[in-house]
Specification:
The complex is a heterodimer of chains A (about 350) and B (about 260). Chain A has about 350 residues and is mostly helical. Chain A has a domain of about 220 residues. Chain A is about 65% helix and about 5% strand. In chain A, the strands form three sheets. Chain A has a two-stranded antiparallel ribbon. The longest helix of chain A is centred in the last third of the chain and has 29 residues. Chain A is globular. Chain A starts with a strand and ends with a helix. Chain B has a domain of about 180 residues: 3-Layer(aba) Sandwich (Rossmann fold), CATH 3.40.50.300. In chain B, β7 and β8 form a beta hairpin. In chain B, α4 crosses α5. The two termini of chain B are about 35 Å apart. Classes of the chains: A mainly alpha (about 350), B alpha/beta (about 260). Chain A: It is found in: Cell membrane. Chain A: This is ABC transporter permease. Chain A: InterPro entries: ABC_transp_permease.
Chain lengths: ~350, ~260
């Protein structure tokens, strides 16, 4: 007793109450999943998932597969960075996939070339004055569309007190409608060369990881991040402490919207075309990345690092199933189970922590 | 040379037809610790809510630190130097101790960055440690989140805010109502420390022993009115109960209730 006692009030220090960063659990899960795939790979395929078992590369890793793993989650991952912040405020953003779709159509319309194979661009949306624009225009239009959608989400959530689920569900349907109305369902194609470089090669990954680092710093070292966690943790306390909660929520949703807009730019640049169905169910994939990464849907808890690891887990599972030559059905069943399992584990840990204190 | 820190004259609050608080004249000297007692619904919390700007009074004046004040919200009151420890703790569970102490008034650097200005963790941590030391609050690790702390520790964190921000008046609304014996003792120790440091305090409490232990003066509310203003040394528990229940009314308040 005495060795644990601190001072007059008998408040004690209990080692078991020391905090263990949640990201380590998520990282452990990633390692575990990789190990499982390596074992299954060795048994059933006779190859390694991540290591260069066929000596095709100079390094010990199978660089090609590593690249695929990260590139296939990079674009949704950018959305997930914004969704993470929204969920930390105890909100949700269901609109990001549709906002990506609408933004893709609109931004691409400002990125088109005037001439294709010597003739006029058959897919041109606007007149000649809007063709061959400098690359900064479609990028700004894309970010702007995302920001506007995000601000609308944020204003609905913060000022009209509509639950985030409903507000962003409305935006989800609305933005998908905009995407289909924009060119009456026709794809928008033939971007300028400069535009097509934005999402070429490893660019999506570079952008994703740079933004992850940036938002990690922002969430941990700026007043924006602190208030985001505070609002999700105890909104009443945040308001009583003088934080302008509605204004902050608008900012958070605007940033999430901007990241969805940016994803649209990268995706259309990568695919050289924009289609109204783009980004379908991306919002759910992004939420899945965050949730697997330990972001609590009740708000206040989670981190950018967790979401990045969550994205990698999804990437590894997707690649792993292809590698084991198993159908996509199994992959989705397993992903679904992992999401539920991650949340169940989190709940269990929370309850255990609550009964201890 | 006693100076008045807080004075209310004719402070009144009606909720529709309900007269929750009627003509409360109250004076608090600098460094004085006063308890507010009374039955449930006697107007104690209503009184506190008018002073702290949580609600707007129906009429009456409040003079704080020499000037008449009209707080439009709790934040105004806090900026003027009134720190309140609410019955429901205004703490963010997922943040640690310094984050909670400085919530809404963080120390920052590079302020031109606007909402993305950088938190000055070092200064806040040092100020937190100084504040905890001042109040003799022991928290094993200030970097732990509030969620991992006991009820007593949480209450201590809430109280430590007052010490950290050199407030002029601290108001505690039943600070130990939800605490165990040991934790109550800890909070009471902090109150004594505040007394030694000359901090003015209004303590709303139901706990007779605690009140007699901690304060200089007891003000009793009954049915929205102040019915007694007693020096601790001139009264005892039975006497106070008589005022609370209505068996007695202070001579100067005759006819009030």
């Amino acid at each position: 007793m005495s060795d644990k006692s601190h001072g007059t009030g008998g408040l004690t220090f209990d080692k078991s109450k020391r905090q263990w960063p949640n990201e380590l659990n998520v990282f452990g899960a990633l390692i575990l999943i990789i190990v499982i795939f390596e074992i299954l790979g060795a048994i059933y395929v006779g190859q390694s998932l991540l290591f260069d078992s066929n000596n095709r590369f100079d390094s010990i890793f199978n660089e090609q597969r590593l690249r695929i793993i990260i590139i296939q989650v990079a674009i949704v991952g950018i959305i997930a960075l914004g969704v993470t912040q929204v969920i930390i405020t105890a909100g949700i953003d269901l609109s990001s996939g549709s906002v990506l779709g609408a933004t893709a159509m609109i931004a691409m319309s400002f990125a088109q070339v005037s001439e294709v194979n010597g003739g006029p661009n058959p897919k041109a949306i606007f007149g000649p004055a809007f063709l061959d624009l400098p690359v900064v225009v479609p990028v700004m239009v894309g970010l702007g569309c995302g920001i506007i959608a995000g601000i609308v989400n944020g204003v609905l959530v913060a000022y009209s007190r509509i639950p985030p689920f409903i507000a962003t569900l409305g935006m989800m349907l609305f933005a998908r409608g905009v995407a289909q109305w924009w060119s009456k369902g026709n794809p928008v194609s033939f971007p300028t060369e400069a535009y097509s470089k934005i999402g070429a090669g490893m660019m999506p990954v570079i952008i994703f990881l740079s933004l992850a680092v940036l938002f990690h710093l922002i969430m941990n070292y700026t007043i924006y991040g602190k208030h985001t966690y505070a609002i999700g943790s105890n909104e009443a306390a945040a308001r009583m402490s003088g934080i302008n909660v509605p204004r902050h929520l608008v900012l958070v949703y605007a940033i999430a919207g901007m990241l969805a807009g940016l994803s649209a730019v990268i995706l259309t640049s990568k695919n050289l075309t924009a289609q109204s169905g783009m980004g379908l169910s991306y919002e759910l994939d992004a939420i899945a990345m965050a949730v697997i990464g330990g972001v609590s849907l009740f708000g206040g808890r989670g981190s950018i690092i967790g979401t990045v690891i969550g994205a990698l887990i999804i990437g590894v599972i997707t690649s792993g199933f292809t590698f084991l030559r198993l159908g996509a059905y199994y992959q989705e069943m397993v992903l679904g189970s992992i999401i539920v399992g991650a949340v169940a584990l989190d709940q269990w840990q929370q309850q255990r922590a609550a009964t201890r204190s | 040379m006693s100076e008045t820190i807080l004075e209310t004259k004719g402070l009144t609050k009606h909720y529709g037809g309900v007269h929750a608080l009627e003509d409360a004249d109250f004076i608090l000297e600098k460094g004085e610790h006063v308890a507010i007692m009374g039955d449930n619904g006697a107007g104690k919390s209503t009184f506190v809510r008018q002073i702290t700007g949580v609600e707007q009074r129906t009429r009456g004046t409040i003079v704080f630190d020499g000037t008449e004040v009209n707080f439009s919200g709790p934040l105004d009151a806090r900026e003027a130097g009134i720190e309140t420890v609410f019955q429901t703790l205004a703490l963010a569970d997922d943040l640690n101790v310094p984050d909670n102490l400085f919530l809404g008034r963080e120390k920052t650097m590079f302020n031109w960055l606007g909402p993305f200005r950088i938190l000055d963790y070092k200064t806040m941590r040092e100020a937190t440690l100084a504040g905890l030391e001042k109040t003799a609050v022991k928290i094993p690790n200030i970097r732990n989140t509030i969620a991992n702390m006991s009820g007593g520790q949480r209450q201590c964190v809430a109280i430590a805010r007052t010490a950290t921000f050199a407030s002029k008046l601290t108001i505690m609304d039943e600070p130990t109502a939800a605490l165990g014996v040991q934790e109550t003792a800890q909070v009471e120790n902090i109150v004594r420390t505040l007394k030694e440091q000359g901090e003015s305090l209004i303590l709303v409490s139901h706990n007779m022993r605690q009140v007699f232990d901690l304060v200089d003066r007891i003000v009793v509310f009954r049915r929205g009115r102040i019915v007694a203003n007693l020096n601790k040394d001139d009264t005892d528990g039975q006497d106070v109960v008589a005022y609370i229940t209505g068996a007695k009314t202070g001579a100067e308040y005759e006819g009030a209730a």
